[in-house]
């Protein structure tokens, strides 16, 4: 399982950091890449978030649910679902045409 030994688990912090530096660097680069791609579609996401951010609390309040407690969970779900829909929908359009 990744060839992790007890020696690796209990290694000093600097030794562990040195061993993981390459992968942490790659992770950082991929995070920047993902951020750049998201930035291309920021206008769509700003619309997807604004509309959801208005409608969800209103619907929760009408149903007697405190929007401050439930709103963030539902808003995150809606944002994720719409994000995947846009991502996969765009990929389908690109690759199926």
UniProtKB/TrEMBL annotation:
It is found in: Membrane. Pfam families: MgtE. Gene3D superfamilies: SLC41 divalent cation transporters, integral membrane domain. Its main location: membrane. InterPro entries: SLC41_membr_dom, SLC41_membr_dom_sf. One of its GO terms (molecular function) is monoatomic cation transmembrane transporter activity. Residues 22-89 form the SLC41A/MgtE integral membrane domain. The chain crosses the membrane at residues 21-38, 72-96. GO terms for cellular component: membrane. It is a multi-pass membrane protein. It comes from the Bacteria. Keywords: Magnesium, Membrane, Transmembrane, Transmembrane helix, Transport. PANTHER family: MAGNESIUM TRANSPORTER MGTE, SLC41A_MGTE INTEGRAL MEMBRANE DOMAIN-CONTAINING PROTEIN. Belongs to the SLC41A transporter family. This is SLC41A/MgtE integral membrane domain-containing protein.
């Amino acid at each position: 399982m990744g060839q992790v030994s007890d020696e690796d688990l209990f290694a000093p912090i600097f030794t562990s950091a040195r061993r993981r530096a390459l992968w942490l660097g790659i992770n950082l680069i991929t995070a920047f890449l993902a951020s750049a791609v998201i930035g291309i579609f920021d206008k769509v996401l700003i619309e997807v978030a604004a509309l959801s951010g208005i409608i969800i609390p209103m619907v929760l309040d009408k149903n007697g649910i405190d929007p401050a407690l439930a709103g963030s969970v539902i808003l995150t779900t809606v944002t994720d679902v719409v994000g995947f829909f846009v991502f996969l929908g765009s990929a389908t359009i690109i690759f199926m045409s």
